Amino acid sequence: MKSFWNIFSAAPHRLFFFSGAIQLILPLLIWSVELIGRYTDFWAPLNMIFPIAWAHGFVMIFGLFIFFIFGFLMTVFPRWMNAPLIAKDDYSATFLWLNTGLIIFELSLFSSHTSALSGLLIFLFGWLYGVFALYRCFKSAPKQNKRYETILLLALISGSIGVASFAMWIFNNNWLFLQISISIGLWLYLLPILFTVSHRMLPFFSSNIISDYKIFQPGITLWIFLSACIGHFILDQLNLLSWLFITDIPLAAIALLHSIRWQLHRSFKDRLLAVLHMAFFWLFIGMTLFSIQSLLLLFNGEYILNKAPLHALTIGFFTSMLIAMASRVTMGHSGRMLHLDSLSWYLFIGLQLAAFSRVIAELQFDNLMQSNIFNLLAASLWLISLGIWFIKYAPIYLSRRVDGNEG
């Protein structure tokens, strides 16, 4: 009989998705405690070594998604490129270094800058170790078009620079490094990765379900999108927020074009496909809100949308796509049928309501009480939906495949 570790580490996605699933719950649980303490008299807000909003932002951007990204890429890179599988020692070591560093960092948020920095450096080492493992797979693959894999590796390297920048902020308290870190995380790391994976996978998944489907994967839209991400990052660093529409309108337009050409309207015949398309449509919503905010700043100097565009992008697109992809990969690689049951469907709808509530909370600029209520509602919907998702899917990573196969 196989040992627990052999089962748990039989495939990269098992290890990384399990840790990622924990990070789906833990940071929002702490954030909810903070919000209740901030908005009510039940208890005092949490006391951390630096403002909790920045700790929350870092963990959500860098500490949550990286586990799902490594779990996915270490599984599909060899398949995409017909390369040798990534060695178990390599993905296990990446998993252990990342978890050790992040646990130390999260525990140190209540005690010590020094230990928080130490944890972050261990986490960064694990990140770079994982990138190197993917790079070796990339180099060993036969010569072919590797545009997707190249973009993903560059985005992961950018993400590591974002982590290093956050560490520099903790080290010297220069807020410029904090700003650079968060901006890199959004525009040079997460958005390029999730759009690139969508560009690679959504047409493929759709062609297996939708009849008379024509694959739409133009390289030109991929490069324009990535160039606009870089442009947004540069404008953001130059504090030219009123000119962000120059990059954000093209990002919104490309997102809408792909939703239409990838046939969002025909995806609802299969729930597992529909959740991918629904998640992707949030990209258009988020970038449209960013564009509107930029134009409002340009013409009348008003910043009235607050963080609504950000949360449409991060919860609506990033997290919804993560859950949609993770659910599919979990079922497919555990020997289960690729079918989204009613419970999983309603959990995904709950996440959509959480995104909507968080956006509305930012738009309640004339009513602080309503804003607080929608903020708490969003956190509650997240915890309920993803908490149940964790209970349903996390045990799969700890047990053998139902079809008896390896992996």
Structure, described:
By secondary structure, the chain is mostly helical. It has a single domain (about 5-400), classed as Cytochrome C Oxidase, Chain A. Helix content is about 75%, strand content about 0%. The longest helix is centred in the middle third of the chain and has 33 residues, at about 175-205.
DSSP E strands, number: 0
CATH superfamily: Cytochrome c oxidase-like, subunit I domain
Please indicate the percent range of residues in DSSP E strands (runs of 2 or more): under 5%
Radius of gyration: 21 Å
Report the uncertain regions.
Answer: none
Element order: H for helix, E for strand: HHHHHHHHHHHHH
Mean pLDDT: 93
Number of structurally distinct domains: 1
